[in-house]
Every structure is written in C-alpha cells, then in structure tokens.
UniProtKB/TrEMBL annotation:
Keyword Cell membrane (UniProt): no
Keywords annotated in UniProt: Plasmid
Taxonomy of the source species: Bacteria, Pseudomonadati, Pseudomonadota, Alphaproteobacteria, Hyphomicrobiales
Protein name, UniProt field: Xaa-Pro peptidase family protein
Organism: Rhizobium indigoferae
Matches recorded under SUPFAM superfamilies: Creatinase/aminopeptidase, Creatinase/prolidase N-terminal domain
Gene3D superfamilies found in the cross-reference section: Creatinase/methionine aminopeptidase superfamily (3.90.230.10), Creatinase/prolidase N-terminal domain (3.40.350.10)
CDD domains: APP_MetAP (cd01066)
Amino acid sequence: MLREESDSAELTGPTVFKDERKQAYLNPEGVDRPLISPLPATTLDRARRYRLECLRTKMREWDCGALLLYDPVNIRYAFDSSNMSIWTMHNASRYALILADGPAILFEFEGAEHVNDGLPGIDEIRSAKSWIFFTAGNLMEPRLKAWAEEVADLIKSNGGNKRVAVDKLEPAGAFELRERGFMLLDGQELAERARSIKSADEIELMRWTIRVCEAGMARMYEAHEPGRTEREIWAELHFENAPSGGEWLETKLLTAGPRTNPWYQECSDYVVKRGEMISFDTDMIGPYGYCADLSRSWTAGHVAMNAKQKQLYAAARDQIEHNLAILKPDMTFEEFNALSWRIPEQYQPYRYTLALHGTGMADEWPGILLHPDFDPEFSGLIEEGMVLNVESLIAEAGSESIKLETQALITARGAERLDTFPWEEI
C-alpha cells in the first residue's frame, strides 16, 4: 500500500490503495449470505436469566411493588421479547409488568401473543389494553380506566406495595395510577442502572453484534467509490445487519466532504467525490438486540489523506487513545473528566458533546460530557462490567470532520476494546 503526501482532493494513480486489513472483516460466506452466529443457545439463556434478575434486584433495592415497562428496549432486556419495536416506540400498544412478589407478565399486541413462545422469563401473556388515541379515539377514557384497573388489581393481588416504577407512560396513564394511590418512580433510571453492568454472556452476544457491524463496515469500505451517494454507502450496513438477524440503525449519520461539518447531518443524495472524507456513526442495533456503536472516517476512493485530513485524524486518534488509557473501575465521573484529553481551542466550536457513554441494547447511561461541558455536580462511578463508548469528533473552521468511536468493556485491568476494525494509517 503506497502513501504519498498531497493536498489535492483528486488523487489517482499510485496513491490509490485498498486496505487489506479491512477486507479481512468481509463476510466470508459472500455478499448474498448472512453471517450465522456460532454462539450456543445456552449463552442466550443465561443472559436472559441474568438480565431479568438484574431488574428484580434493582426493584428490591428501590422497594418497588412493581415495574411497568413500555420502552421496547427495556422489554427486550427483561424478556428477550421483540415485536414491532420501532412501531411500539411511538405507539404504546404493548407493555410488561414485573411484580416484586409475583409473576412477570407481558401484555402483547392483540393477535401477536404467539411471537413470545419459548421465552423463559415470561410467566404469563395477556392481550394488551391499548388506550392511545390512535386506536381508542372517543373510547380512550373507558379503555384507560380498564387498563388502570387491571394493572392495579394485579399489583394488589400479588401483595405489591404502592411504589411502582414506570419507564415511559402517557400523562393520562400516570394520572389514573396515581388516582388509585400508587407512587410512581422513575423506571427508566431503574432499568438503565440494571442494564449498565453486563454479564460475561452479554459480552459474548455483544461481540457477535460487533462482528456483524464490522462486516457491514467492510462492505461500506469496499463500496464507497466516488460517484455513489451517501445513502448508497450507508445502505451497505443495513444489507449486512438485516440478513444476519439485526434489527435497525438508530441514526443515519454518514456524510462526506463539506457535509461532515457541522456534524449531525444525515445521509443524503450527495454524490461522494474522490479524496473527500467519509465520516459515519453506525448506531446499529444488531443480532440479539445489542448495539454496535462504532465510528470511522476514511477518504473516498481509497486514496491517501491530504495534510489537513491527517492533522485532524491524528488529533481524533489522540483523544480516543488517551481516554481509553485512563479508564479504570471505581473511577468517579469527575476523576475521569479531570484526567481526560483536552480538546484544542480551534476544535472546540465543532466538538462532540460526549466524551463517553454507556452501551448495551442501545446507547445508555452514563453519558459523560466532554470537559468544556462537564458539570462537576454530575456524579457516578465507572464500574467493572460496564461497556463504555469512547467518542471523538474533530474539526475546525472550514474543514471536514473526523468522527471516531470505539466500544470498550471495563475490566479489573482497565478498558478492553471490543471492536477491532482498523483505524486509518497516516
């Protein structure tokens, strides 16, 4: 692979190369075959039991009589039950109720109860009572009351106390439960704290999701030739994820050239030009429902970076490597902030707000802001068993943006990277 110094965006001839390290991540079964997980069913079964027990442990700590879940990510975590997850994120039509001293009940979308066959954590399946305006219309009030009566009766009949943790609930539902004497607690905090410490089996499931993601990234690398649109390149990740048992991409963050700065523009029909920087963030919910949240940047057309691109890329690598190296268990958020990499002044207006964030079945707590934005009152501990993503976004006035991100497990020895897809050689 040849590298030649150049500031030109139109590089050809000996500067064109293919990074053989990335090609090693391609799906060995070929472009028309899914990746098949090698993990035994026992790994998933142990992870299921662990996750449900994590929630019950937090319920005991919080002295909750019940945990009511509407967030499909939390339902997936509790039961490994997945049904129309994106649709139910904005249509509250399935939910779960976990009783502290009773059964764990899934209220499934009517007619879809069978999709949960064989899931061991579910003690009972009932048809959900949907009272959202979309499905209830003028019947919303009586359906709401019937829903509240059923939930209240279940808690009371199983000896639960009046403290109920709820993750997401429309105001009318919260009002009805309070009318029946229940104290509502923040179930999203309860669930995210439970989710934050991963078991060894969860890490194995996550490693497989990352394997699928990296195969998708290799496809993106192979297929990103100039003349393709941002959307076409972004679609290569979908192509690998969906057949391999993955679920969705949380964002559409892939841009090229001038569209990389400012960040947070979504992929478009912009036609990528040779030598432009392509920067992306996978935000991929993959097999087993776990998240592979990885970011890379490279030049279009398999050509060497120009001098400015190299300068920005080197700074982004410095930030990633520095912040990875200082991570250790029992470090407070404030201690991490004090020791974290200091972003140079010229890059600060274009910075990414987060230095670190947790990752599990989605991006999750804790989200630790970059040092210019960090609030010293934000407290917490980095703990062994957390999976944390280390972030970098580097740009300056008039430049392209470099976006890098890696996913790491916190061990007794420090941070262990879970992804291995190579960085660029500069």
